Amino acid sequence: MNRHRSRTLGDRPLSPETLMMGYGYDPALSEGSIKAPIFQTSTFVFKSAEDGKRFFEVAYGLRERDPDEALGLIYSRINNPNLEILEDRLAVWDGADKALVFSSGMAAISTTILALSRPNDIVVYTAPAYGGTEYLFDRILPRMGVETVSVADADGGEGLARAVGEAAARAAARGGRLAAVYVETPANPTNQLIDLAAAAAAIKALGQAEPPPLVVDNTFLGPLWQKPLQHGADLILYSLTKYVGGHSDLIAGACMGRADLMGRVAEMRTICGAVTDPHTAWLLMRSLETLHIRMERSQANAVELVRRLRGHARIEAVLDAGGAESSPGQRAIFARQCSGPGSTFSLRLKGGEAEAFRMLNALRLFKLAVSLGGTESLASHPSSTTHSDYSPEAKARCGIGDNLVRLSVGIEHVDDLYADLEQALARIG
Ligand SMILES: *Cc1c(COP(=O)(O)O)cnc(C)c1O
């Protein structure tokens, strides 16, 4: 299928905001429909037996694709117009060669890691990471002979650099490789930032001909406020469930980045079958049209709430990415790597679980729910929910106390949101 892929108007390169309305879709192929229809189909009819043969040669890697040859449509576990258009549009924001969409963020993460690693390999990752990701690294990969090393290293990057060097040497000694360096930044729920350029430099310092890829979960600030490919990342992962979907009504994920690595991820997605469905892809295309407006508005709301809440009598600290209460090292990383703090931040209350629960139970507009990045504001208590399986030591190390409340700020009127927080904080007693 040939589709509109021009990214310029004359000499002028077009912005992602503009490209989200039409890029990758040709109305003439769909009866002039201004929006892409939902291609609710499992399989695609070949025009001839020769076509079927040609499409499979490319899909199975039996021959290289000709430069102008579009990947023929075969079967919706392999490709589908809704997925392909969505993937083209997602790749625009981060400047990726290629993007692939998955049935969830975890499907994207686990399929990508499976594509990169083999028995005897080691994966180094930064902690804390998303709970599902830590489960994959701590419990599932070791069963498959892949060792994982977690590094809790915020500012300097020395700990991460040391772990990368040691892991590469240990893996080589037993016939394996350092398969990947996996970074989640900012970390949930404390907004600790990891220096991506320092991580990329540590990988480069290994001096390997085929260095391990730097893989970054960009769910919290991407694709607007942090562009990891510009700071040395090779692959980016997303839970599209969060900001990109943005309406708390779907589950999906994505992986994007360098073409050669994406080929390996595509193979694994086809075989694991972790692909998303045409209807979810269609919803995500709708979401992409308003992505920048939603992310700008929710960030503006969050910045204003942080400004009003800092120094509040019931609050010990406000944890926003690179914020005024973070260390100079954190603020330096923020200045280099992020163009905004996003709209998920946490409050360290004065008191403990009882005080946090009194506040949470008093909230009227903020809903008590895990997840983030939707149009509506959410509040959660990480210590008793998303991070309840952390040991007391791990909670202490990662700064996840009983007094921590995480907020995901939506696009409601900021004065209403502040009024809600103010009355709930007053109810602490
Ligand atoms: C939610 C989330 C995930 C997992 O995504 P799902 O779509 O729920 O599978 C991974 N990483 C981060 C940072 C997340 O917030």
TrEMBL record:
Its EC number is 4.4.1.11. Its cofactor is pyridoxal 5'-phosphate. InterPro entries: Cys/Met-Metab_PyrdxlP-dep_enz, Cys_met_metab_PP, PyrdxlP-dep_Trfase, PyrdxlP-dep_Trfase_major, PyrdxlP-dep_Trfase_small. Keywords: Lyase, Pyridoxal phosphate. The modification N6-(pyridoxal phosphate)lysine is found at K242. One of its GO terms (biological process) is transsulfuration. SUPFAM superfamilies: PLP-dependent transferases. GO terms for molecular function: methionine gamma-lyase activity; pyridoxal phosphate binding. One of its GO terms (cellular component) is cytoplasm. PANTHER family: METHIONINE GAMMA-LYASE, TRANS-SULFURATION ENZYME FAMILY MEMBER. Belongs to the trans-sulfuration enzymes family. This is Methionine-gamma-lyase. It comes from Brevundimonas basaltis.
